[in-house]
Structures are given as structure tokens and as C-alpha cells.
Amino acid sequence: MENKKLEQLQKYTINNEEKAGLTTNQGLKMAEDEFSLKAGERGPTLMEDFHFREKMTHFDHERIPERVVHARGVGAHGIFQLYESLADYTKADFLTDPSKTTPVFVRFSTVQGSRGSSDTVRDVRGFATKFYTDEGNFDLVGNNMPVFFIQDAIKFPDFVHAVKPEPHNEIPQGASAHDTFWDFIGQNPESAHMVMWHMSDRAIPRSLRMMEGFGVHTFRLINADGQAHFVKFHWKPALGVHSLVWDEAQRIAGKNPDFHRQDLYEAIEKGDFPEWELGLQLIPEEDEHKFDFDILDPTKLWPEEEVPVKIVGKMTLNRNVDNFFAETEQVAFHPGHVVPGIDFSNDPLLQGRLFSYTDTQLSRLGGPNFHQIPINQPVCPFHNNQRDGMHQMNIHHGQTSYHRNGLNANQPKPVPADQGGYEHYQEKIDGRKIRGRSESFRDFYSQAKLFYNSLSPFEQRHLKDALSFELGKCKSDAVKANAVALLNHIDRELAEETAENIGAPIPKENCEVTSSKKSPALSMVNTISKPDTKSVAILLNGEPDVELLTTWLGTFAKHKINYSIVDKKLRSLNQTVKVTDTYETTDSSLFDAALLISSEPIIQTPALEFIQTTYKHYKPLAVSLSNPNALEGSRINLEGPGIYHIITSTIQPFIEGIAEGRFWNRML
């Protein structure tokens, strides 16, 4: 299966690395490509210059409309492997046959900013997966947060208009810290749960490889006997869930705005293939109403303590794209792309998305034939009576293009369900046509409180700081007051501290939800921590012991730790060890840890600033100093947590510190 998709894409590949004569798009070989056709050397350009016209016309039309949301993204190819058959729950072929390898394409993205915005802004991250199955494409189009801001799709244009740059000045780009976003939040209390996630560390992931993915919506799985289960989809990263700190995220935005996409690209190029396990939360149809929340509400999650996540398979991203535009930019996802055995629920946000996505692709990709673009083509054949349209790539044979027909034996004809044809789940529906929502959707604050309760003290501290930063950027006193009033329904102390920091009034009445309920799965404290693929800056202050340094580099490589050697200028230390970065070209925020090697009595300013920032961001720091007093007077507590004094080749404690990642007790 994986090879089938790769072969399909290769059919459309032009290898520009091979020697070939330059031609026009019509195949005409051209002898000149630097000068337009002119009437004399200093004369006017002639209209008959067909090569200039073709080249310039194509250039003028190279850009297509960017996505309204999720414009900035990065993609990669991979495979999905099922662990065990899920035939008890679904008849989907790729979820029932563990012997099959299913090719996938994944696109990660930010939501608010344009294609030119930074990777590390505070934002929701898109996590969209296209499974190329034998039964057609299945698109799992989700985010790195399990809930959303709104309950009904009719409000989606309003939400996006509110969070996007404000229309009068197109500011701010790639950020939600402005009046219209927080005005929307204050006027729409259903957003309370999601805004807590948005203000948490989940909104500034360390790496795309280190974040969870969620299908967000409730779907249905249907087995061969017609039995249904409600399902939520999860992606669990093999490297655990890790974040940046806010100051670090802002520094990276200036130092390397492509930080996340470069991190993903380089990991795959090195063979450090990112992995996620697919998890399912399953609820039998008869248990739909047994919970104290509505399972169809997209602003609610299913606590893992109540509905355990069943791990069913693994996804591995193992190949970068060959061309960003042709693949990442032109890939077209749609939650309505399903296969037999997967169906929808009555989640009103999902229902609206089933219309919106096709409509968007028609605008972006120029017409109804976007499914024929190589990255979007299924690996199985497709036959129907749809014809013509812009960018039609297929040449259809035959006289008929309608159903039913007698001239062509009614071909192509529908496939019965027992032979693999898709059949919608026959849900019984009885109700009046109304514009409204169920009373079970009106609990806006309980799960927001659950999320806040579940965070560790340092995560709560970061969330408070994020609220103060975001609301502190707002100009309207009314917007600030309404946002604090919303927080007052979640946690009184949170509302009071935020109000004090932003100069907003504190509501007289305490409306806090009374609950001490927690869900440990919601805190990143309980994640996987390992050193694999993390990065260390090795800082030189003077001349290092190259033999000892080489030993340490071998230890880093053994633990799959990436490293860069930083000095005042690029140079070789021996035949194999080289300085790869200078203090001018890199920054502490781009690394997970730092090792300072100093043979000088004084630490020079660039190295000192580097390690002080490392310390400030709670990262592990190792020092090997010829002068043990060289850091006296610095802002570093050398006896504090996460500080390692390396004298000999024993570097293992530092490796363990890199695995731990952050030392939050420096905050105390």
C-alpha cells in the first residue's frame, strides 16, 4: 500500500536534478532564457515573444488563495500500522486487517496567522491526517486540543472573524491578544473551556513531534453487523507532550520563525521518524446519555478516567515532501471523506464542517477536480458520472455520463453494502425543525474548571501569565471586564489575579464552579520524558579538551541527542569535530539544554548570556569549568536544580536531566 501511493506520486514527478534541455510548456526547446526578444539591443520588447509571455504569465498565476484558517502548515508522508483487528467495532478495512500498511499524509498548522506568520505563536495547532486506504481516502481532520471554541458551525465565521487580524488595520498577525478575540470570548461563554486550553502551555508546543492530536468531534464506528459505537480519535506522541515557555516562544519567533517546520523536516531527514499511537475512546450507542456531559458537544471532552483510551495502532512519518506547493499546499482535507464503517454523529459543529470543506477547496484549488491532484488521489480506482470542470485531468471514454443508463449496462453502478458500498448508519430521528441547542449543551464551565484543576502548579502559573499578557494587550475596558467575568465562573482566584494584573474590576459575586474533580491525563506533568531527538548547545569559551569532548559527543549520539558546537567563529577542532554555529547565528531558545566548556578564567559575554537564558527557561545546564569561580556573580544558582558540574567523562546525570526537560522548581 505504501509503495502504491509512492508509485502514484512518482508518475507525476519531474526530476529537475537530471540533465535536460530547457523547453517551453509545449515541449519546444529554447536556445535562450536570459533575454527577451527585442527590436535591437536597446529597443522595445516584441509582443511575438511567446517564451517571455508564457514564462511571465505562469509566474503571475503561481499563487493560489491561502487557506482562510490553517494557512501556515507543514506536511509529511508516512504509514499507519494497526496493532489488532477492530472488527468488533468497525468494518473499515484499514482498522480490521493488522497485516496491512496504510500510507498517510499529515499536515500540521497554526490557525490564526497567514502563510508568512511564525511557527511558535500562541495558537491552536491543526493535526490533519489523510489515510490512503483500499476503500478510499479517510481524513481525520483535528487539532492538538480535544475541544473547540463554539458548539454550532453557524458561529464559525464569527469566531474566525474575531480571532483574525482586526479588519481596520490588519493587526495583530498570528496572535489572539487583541480586543475582537476577547470580545468574542466574553460574549460567548461556550468558549470558556477551549480558552483555558488556548491559554495553557498546549498552545505553544515544543515541537510538532511532541504534541497530541485529537479528532475533536464525536464520530461513529459501525461493525459488519450494523452495531454502532460513538468514538473519539486521539494521537499519542511517542516522545511525550512538551511545550515551550512563553518568553522562549517569543524569542524563537524572531530567531527562527520556521522553527517547527524545520524541526520536523530535519528529524525525518536524519531518520528520527516521528511516531504517534492512535487511540480510540468508545461509547456503546445505548450509553449515550449516561454521562454528566453531552457526548456530542464539541466544547466537551470525554475524561479518560471515565472513558479509557484504547491504543490500536501506530503512525510513523518517514518521508518529507518533494515539493511543498504540490503536496503540502495543495492537499485537500475534508471530515466528510470517510470509508465504510465510519460515520458521523449529530455534533452540530461537525455537521457544518461537512459542507464547509468542499466549498473551501473549490475556491482555493480552482474547481471541482481537486481530487485529481496527485496528493489528493486515492490509491483505489474511482469511477462515477462526474465530468468536465476546470482542470479536468482524466480522459473519459464512452457515450454515457449519467445514472441510470441502458446504453452502457448502467455502468458505473452502485455497489451493494455487503460488497463494500458505503451505507449511512440508520439512526432513528424524531424531532421538530428548530434553531436552538439542547439544554445538555448549556454547561459552559464545569469542564473548564476540570481542566484548570488538573494542571500542575507551574502549568496554572503559566496559564495565569498568559491571560494577563493577552488581556493586557486589549484596549477596551469593557472587553477586559467581560473576560474577567467569564473567568469568575471558572475560578475565583484566577479571576481576581487576572483582574488585578490588567486593571479590570473584580465581580462582586463569586460565581465559581464548585468542583475539585481532576483528570491527570490533562496535565503535561504526566507525559513521557526521554532524551531522544532533543538538542544540546555545546558552548566553547576557550579551547576544549577535544578528546574528552569527542567522548561526550559519542554519548549524545548513543542517546539520539542532537548537538551543535557554538563558538565565536566557525572552525575545525580536529578532522571530525567542527564548530557548527556562532553566538551570532544561534540562540539559547533554539535548544533543549546547554553544555558550557570553559578553559578561560572569565566567561565571555555571549556565552554568559546564552547560559543565563538557558537557566531562565528552566532547562538543564551542564558546566565544565577550569575556573570553578568563573560564574560567581551570574544569575545562575550553580547549586540549583538541573545544574550539572562535569569534571570527567561522566555525563550520564546530564543526559537524565535532558530527558526530564525542565526544572520548574527554579520558579520557587
From TrEMBL:
<comment type="similarity">
    <text>Belongs to the catalase family. HPII subfamily.</text>
</comment>
<keyword id="KW-0349">Heme</keyword>
<dbReference type="InterPro" id="IPR002226">
    <property type="entry name" value="Catalase_haem_BS"/>
</dbReference>
<dbReference type="Pfam" id="PF18011">
    <property type="entry name" value="Catalase_C"/>
</dbReference>
<dbReference type="InterPro" id="IPR018028">
    <property type="entry name" value="Catalase"/>
</dbReference>
<dbReference type="InterPro" id="IPR020835">
    <property type="entry name" value="Catalase_sf"/>
</dbReference>
<keyword id="KW-0560">Oxidoreductase</keyword>
<dbReference type="Pfam" id="PF06628">
    <property type="entry name" value="Catalase-rel"/>
</dbReference>
<dbReference type="Pfam" id="PF00199">
    <property type="entry name" value="Catalase"/>
</dbReference>
<dbReference type="InterPro" id="IPR024712">
    <property type="entry name" value="Catalase_clade2"/>
</dbReference>
<dbReference type="InterPro" id="IPR041399">
    <property type="entry name" value="Catalase_large_C"/>
</dbReference>
<dbReference type="InterPro" id="IPR011614">
    <property type="entry name" value="Catalase_core"/>
</dbReference>
<comment type="function">
    <text>Decomposes hydrogen peroxide into water and oxygen; serves to protect cells from the toxic effects of hydrogen peroxide.</text>
</comment>
<keyword id="KW-0575">Peroxidase</keyword>
<feature type="domain" description="Catalase core">
    <location>
        <begin position="23"/>
        <end position="411"/>
    </location>
</feature>
<keyword id="KW-0479">Metal-binding</keyword>
<keyword id="KW-0376">Hydrogen peroxide</keyword>
<dbReference type="InterPro" id="IPR010582">
    <property type="entry name" value="Catalase_immune_responsive"/>
</dbReference>
<protein>
    <recommendedName>
        <fullName>Catalase</fullName>
        <ecNumber>1.11.1.6</ecNumber>
    </recommendedName>
</protein>
<dbReference type="InterPro" id="IPR043156">
    <property type="entry name" value="Catalase_clade2_helical"/>
</dbReference>
<keyword id="KW-0408">Iron</keyword>
<dbReference type="InterPro" id="IPR029062">
    <property type="entry name" value="Class_I_gatase-like"/>
</dbReference>
